[in-house]
Amino acid sequence: MKGLGQDTRYWEALSRGELALPRCAACGRWRWPAPFRCGDCGGWSFDWQAVDMRGEIYSWTRTWHPFEGTEGFGSPFVTLSVALPEAGGIRLMGVLEGEGEPAIGVPVTGHVASTEVYGRAIPGLRWTVSA
Ligand SMILES: [Zn+2]
Q: What spacing in Å lies between the alpha carbon of 123 and ligand 1's midpoint?
């Protein structure tokens, strides 16, 4: 599609409150970041599929000092790298919400929230520790 960035569909889905990720139409591998060509088989086309926002913490870090663009998160805040088993283990970043303590391997559930950065609302993933 002319004029679209490789990750445009990701941002369009987030804007609807959904998660969509590209899967190679030739070999079926999930790819992220969104490539223009599959790094495994060389395929040129991708199927963008809806993905459940459930995963497990792959890594995390707690940020104690606010910096520009993070005012909406409060301080301190925890950033997660979450592996999505439904999407071949692709990992996505997001901020942890709620009272749950982060630890590697802990299951989390995601939703889309908006963060204001320089006066512009940007959709992003937020995660909570699954019950
Ligand atoms: Zn492929």
A: 28
